[in-house]
């Protein structure tokens, strides 16, 4: 949807290939000041602080991306952006303890609870592509604060749900199945 959102400007902390934030229409600002992609390098705090500055400047919808575990390096900038109610989209991928090859340093445990308790930060953890689309739409529509979008590393199966459940997902939650008995 990059062509439809020329105001979208952002990038990744040197993980674009892993968190899929670079797309065929991406053009780095280092080669073209009118580009739409920033190669931040391995610096989550600097990346997030710069996104806050871009949001404060106005005219763009900044997004940043890294592995969920590495949001720890950006925590203060995430919190400051939330306290200032700045419109930044934080994309966190690799939410999984199934990252055995990367070891425990890459396995997030307490990060979602911390993000959910951050004032003014909307936090989404979609279960599949339908919920991911709903979460992205919410993040793009939101103008009064930041949003965290948290995704797994693994492909997830599509969940069958009713139109009512889809409508309720946009409100933040729904009942997937009623209890028995």
From TrEMBL:
Pfam families: Transket_pyr (PF02779). It comes from Rhizobium hidalgonense. Its EC number is 2.2.1.1. CDD domains: TPP_PYR_DXS_TK_like. The lineage of its organism: Bacteria, Pseudomonadati, Pseudomonadota, Alphaproteobacteria, Hyphomicrobiales. One of its GO terms (cellular component) is cytosol. It comes from the Bacteria. This is transketolase. Its cofactor is Mg(2+); thiamine diphosphate.
